């Protein structure tokens, strides 16, 4: 049974049982007081722990933001650029989450701690004061009664009457105080039910709001997360392909290191120990130097370098060689030595020691010493042995037979072209196909003797066995450059142009193969071979550098991108002639600096979500549209980085949209173009960025600029001067680029659309206008004011 009610009538009787009931009420209030005191303490500890967690999360976010990946080579793919920027995205996500957590911590103080402290102080504290008064009056009342009853009856009547009146008045005062105290006790027992629980409800509402905001942040992040997963998968696939090529090169060099020495500008280079003579008492010392010699100029460079001291580089010396003489062991107590005399240092002779007798002979040959070898110090790179595979009538027959068999029997096989056949079976099939007598007898479409994976491996092996890759050594560098820079459209245009520079047979064979790969990618839901996966498989097959080096293999990922572009744009590249208005890219063979692709639809960082309201009247900053944006499911085209990735080449989003937010990092085209002659440079700008004022308004296929950026991806021609954004009062505007809305606050429109009541938005680079009765946001540089 719970607490018994305190009857007001019992205040006059003040029975022992009444007093027991009062003490029970008082004990319950004391227990409540202690509980609230502990709860407040725990709440403050919770706030402190939340703040500590927030500090740790922010430090973690700060560490993520400051780290930047370094890459090997002179350029990165769009995938790698997005992966590099992902750490800053993670940092921004945590930062936004911690802002919500801080508001939640503040809400705990305002909605839980302060109300409980107020209840404990004003209500429970008031009852304590009433109890003190009640106990004091009880003592006073019953002491007065005892004293009054001890009065002698022999006292004067007037004195007794006065004493009776005083006692009665005191008893009446006590009864009134008792009534008030009883009322307060019962009131506080009822009041605590809502005044204590209501702050708890507000506290949990704040927690629910925080978790809901976290859910909303995760929901906004989901679109980017899916795109990043595709970026990571593409990069992993390219890594696997590159790793196998690098390991193959490593094994070749391990077996024959001399046959794979890189061509060098020096006739000879390597480490030598140089004798440094000292005054007589101290003898001499031998110091390791890295030495380089140019035979044509007879110029000798040597730089002291000691690996064991942390790779410290010393000051180098340069002199011109006069003569070189071999030292015999009878004249010096060291092996593999020779002397060098400098033409510009008369009377000075340097004694040097090679690592071995063979290396000494090589140095003597290079320096014109007496014991010269018949071979050069820098062994020439042995060319690839020519196989019997050729781009002749038989070669076309082999490729067509393999393609026909694959499309008839295995177009839906999972891992098509990635699953490798048994080597012995592949070689046997190839030998039969490459024999004129047996080629036509081999039935690949109806025979169960040949598995599909054997046929696909034979096709790839045949293409790799060609004396020159299908896309030629000569144009290899030209194909790689547009894959490293420019907008998606400029990449396609450049590769389109270069394909038509291939020899006719190469282009014909490439057309047959790419048409087949396009068909394979169209069945990617069944065979899982997306455009990106096919790029990984056929990048090294169709393209390879003439000289095998690690630097060249680092460009393998760009070879994959070239193949992706060929597959995705097969009809345009092979069925249409290249645009003759574009100049020939004569300087594409030079490796440009890292030029970024077209910027994403938003510049800057991910915008803060609207901060949550936690039952507080707080002044909040920079709220976005709280409506969640529509989730898009990435299609198979997202697997390729040759086409505009949703992360790097999407249409512009609204201010406050959390999609497609990455900025493209890298060098500028202007740095590269500054080394090109003026006439060629201006044409190259047009080549890599065909968005001149004469074409943008008439050609809807050109890529519009990013909001807030110049309409030109790179430096615009001298005739175009960018003006700062003007404040726009209410007027009309016409669209000069098409735009597809990806957010409820954004307008979709085609070229030529007329906007009414156009005004400047509070977001930089955006306007607000009305189209077909709907009001929304418009990228400022997508329209022309009328």
TrEMBL record:
Residues 599-608 have a biased composition (Basic residues). One of its GO terms (biological process) is negative regulation of apoptotic process. GO terms for molecular function: GTPase activator activity. Residues 577-608, 620-708 are annotated as: Disordered. CDD domains: BAR-PH_GRAF_family, BAR_GRAF2, RhoGAP_Graf, SH3_GRAF2. Keywords: Cell membrane, Coiled coil, Cytoplasm, Endosome, GTPase activation, Membrane, SH3 domain. Residues 634-645 have a biased composition (Low complexity). The keyword Membrane applies. SMART domains: PH, RhoGAP, SH3. Residues 389-574 form the Rho-GAP domain. GO terms for cellular component: cytosol; endosome membrane; perinuclear region of cytoplasm; plasma membrane. It is found in: Cell membrane; Cytoplasm, Perinuclear region; Endosome membrane. Residues 728-786 form the SH3 domain. The keyword Amino-acid biosynthesis does not apply. Residues 225-252 form a coiled coil. Residues 676-701 have a biased composition (Polar residues). Gene3D superfamilies: Arfaptin homology (AH) domain/BAR domain, Pleckstrin-homology domain (PH domain)/Phosphotyrosine-binding domain (PTB), Rho GTPase activation protein, SH3 Domains. InterPro entries: AH/BAR_dom_sf, BAR_dom, GRAF2_SH3, GRAF_fam, PH-like_dom_sf, PH_domain, PH_GRAF, Rho_GTPase_activation_prot. Residues 265-372 form the PH domain. GTPase-activating protein that catalyzes the conversion of active GTP-bound Rho GTPases to their inactive GDP-bound form, thus suppressing various Rho GTPase-mediated cellular processes. Also converts Cdc42 to an inactive GDP-bound state. Essential for PTKB2 regulation of cytoskeletal organization via Rho family GTPases. Inhibits PAK2 proteolytic fragment PAK-2p34 kinase activity and changes its localization from the nucleus to the perinuclear region. Stabilizes PAK-2p34 thereby increasing stimulation of cell death. This is Rho GTPase-activating protein 10.
